[in-house]
Specification:
2 domains
């Protein structure tokens, strides 16, 4: 089929015009999206992770605005309202001191999330540089760091945290520091393994041949390779830190009475499980739901940050 002269002229004009659509001109335009936009898009496709993220964002509201949400003082004791079951006056009941359980749980979100976020921050700040430098320089530095990591990993995490709390003394801040330091070996080993794998890539060798300094290679080329795994591990580690902090408070080594921390509330109600089950049940449910949401979000982030699962 032969085109007429007018159709040939229109085709040539479309190809020469810079404003012509890509399909007419025969070209296909493509602008890559930033990596974080792609991660958010993949995360939004995971319904469980998205619901978990929304729940955690909602949990931040009572953590910061609990006094405005509930009128009851979490520390106020009322001898006329001892052991009241969940009802109209107190939605989640009262404890053995007449304190409102709902108010204490909402105020306790601040302390439990504080344990999770700050302890993970401590672990990342200490563990990531140790793993970076040990994996990059190797030799005696790698041996020194890894032998220390192996010694710490020989103890269970909660037992190691108990040792640090025993040295530092009981208290919420000391519990946060103990939980954070106890998790340092996990981050150090993860980052070291990623660096050992990444530093053999061709672009690292090319950057070194072009005269890049060690600090530039570490910060510019190696650190971005470990960000994804560290983000996933930090998300999952937040859930573990919340459980560890609650365990220390349950044993009386973390938050001290009358602080409305969820683990301490579990300890308060353990002697009343048969007569006043709500004292321990609702703080335990708060811990369970929060940890479950963080774990689901961590699984979603792991899928979203894995490029091998989203090649298309």
């Amino acid at each position: 089929m032969r085109l007429s002269d007018s159709e040939l002229q229109m085709t040539r004009s479309a190809k020469m015009s810079p404003s012509a659509p890509a399909e007419i001109a025969g070209y296909r335009s493509y602008t890559p999206l930033p990596w974080w936009v792609m991660v958010l898009r993949r995360l939004a496709q995971n319904r469980a992770a998205l619901i978990s993220l929304c729940f955690l964002l909602l949990l931040l509201v009572p953590a910061f605005f609990a006094p405005q949400l509930v009128a009851a003082d979490p520390l106020r004791m009322d001898s006329r309202a001892l052991y009241q079951p969940p009802g109209a006056g107190h939605l989640l009941g009262t404890d053995h001191f007449g304190r409102d359980i709902l108010s204490r749980i909402l105020h306790g979100a601040k302390y439990s999330l504080r344990i999770g976020f700050i302890s993970v921050t401590v672990s990342v700040i200490i563990g990531v540089p140790l793993g970076l430098f040990a994996g990059y320089y190797g030799r005696w530095l790698d041996d020194l760091v890894m032998r220390g990591v192996d010694i710490m990993l020989a103890f269970p995490g909660i037992l190691l945290a108990l040792v640090f709390v025993a040295i530092l003394g009981p208290g919420l801040d000391n519990a946060i520091l103990a939980v954070g330091v106890a998790a340092v070996p996990v981050y150090a080993r993860l980052v070291r393994g990623s660096v050992l794998s990444a530093k053999q890539n061709d672009y690292i060798l090319a950057a070194r041949a072009l005269g890049a300094t060690d600090l530039r290679l570490i910060m510019r080329h190696l650190l971005p390779n470990v960000i994804g795994p560290v983000v996933v591990l930090a998300t999952l580690g937040t859930a573990t830190a919340i459980i560890s902090g609650a365990s220390l408070s349950f044993l009386g080594l973390g938050a001290q009475p009358p602080t409305p921390e969820w683990g301490a509330m579990l300890n308060d109600g353990r002697d009343y499980l048969r007569t006043a089950w709500w004292i321990s049940t609702f703080p335990g449910l708060a811990i369970m739901v929060t940890v479950l949401a963080i774990n689901l979000l961590g699984d979603g982030l792991q899928d979203a940050l894995d490029p091998h699962r989203h090649r298309n």
